[in-house]
Amino acid sequence: MFPRRSTRLNESKLDIQTLENPLATSYYVQKKKSEIKPRRGANSYKDLKTPSKLKRKKEPSLVSFVYEDKPVHPKVKSNTECYSTNYNHDSKSPTLSVAQYDSTDILEKAKAHLISVEPKLKNIIERYPCDLFSPESIRCKVEPFKALSCSIISQQVSTAAAKSIQNRFVALFNPLTRDITHHDFPTPSQIYSTSHSLLRTAGLSLRKTEYIKGLAEKFCTGEIDATMLYNAPYEQVYDTLIKVRGLGKWSIEMFACFGLKHIDIFSTGDLGIQKNMAASIGREISDLKVKSGKWKYMNESEMQQIAEKFKPY
């Protein structure tokens, strides 16, 4: 509502210099709260007052998620393929190579077995070659500590954010080199001796900092050994890593498959596998099932029953 006539007359008495300021043209800015009373039905003084300072838009935080070891909601575009940034084959960090099986023809044997069990897979296998289990890729395994650390960093953040945090994390231990792409990943002892506050400057949450330092401690004390991880069967690898805070079933399965190149890993908790397996048997996947607070396309027993015939690949 408009102010009283007397109020409008007083507006003409304002200094001409004041009128040049667009934030000071309102009469209500020039008067104290005690000197002005809005008419009945008018907005309050607080609503009429023009802000003297524009608020700056808050920049979004890179790390705003709490770690949970579970696949991301299928309708959210996030880190659904975080393992692609976790296991960098171009890294300069030293890696081990353990021949768990004959790598020369393992891929051809696997493809032949899968097609014999389900001929419908032939077109898919021929269209999408599995370079991950090629002889060259199998002989070049990643460094376990680096892969597991990056897995923790990448949990529940986008792929772009995870890569940015990883680069800043590595740069903390190589401050004199400008090209962060050629930095060596820090050793467990380096990370364990670094304070939480310094590690958090890379963009890590406090919880993830605790997880990574806990992982580094287990490597330093020998509780987890890289050679053991390469040579041990999956059951032993799982029993060892599941005790580490920040690593759950899904993370360990991804590490065993994409890092250690285990050939008989089937992740029933992976939403991508659930969705495509449900579609392959003709199930309607548009209606997502919710069980026990978790998103499910199929239950674990159904998936294991279908996958059993594809063993050991």
Write a structural description.
One of its GO terms (cellular component) is nucleus. With 313 residues, the chain is mainly alpha-helical. It folds into three domains: 5-48, no CATH class; 83-259, Endonuclease III, domain 1 (Orthogonal Bundle); 271-310, no CATH class. The protein has 18 helices and two strands. The chain has helices spanning 5-11, 16-19, 27-30, 45-48, 83-86, 106-117, 121-127, 135-139, 144-154, 159-171, 188-192, 196-200, 206-221, 226-231, 234-241, 249-259, 271-280, 300-307, and strands at residues 289-291, 294-296. It has a two-stranded antiparallel sheet. The N and C termini lie far apart (76 Å). 22% of the residues are buried. The model is unreliable at 12-36 and 44-99 (pLDDT under 50).
Task: Provide a brief overview of the structure.
With about 325 residues, this protein is mostly helical. Helix content is about 45%, strand content about 0%.
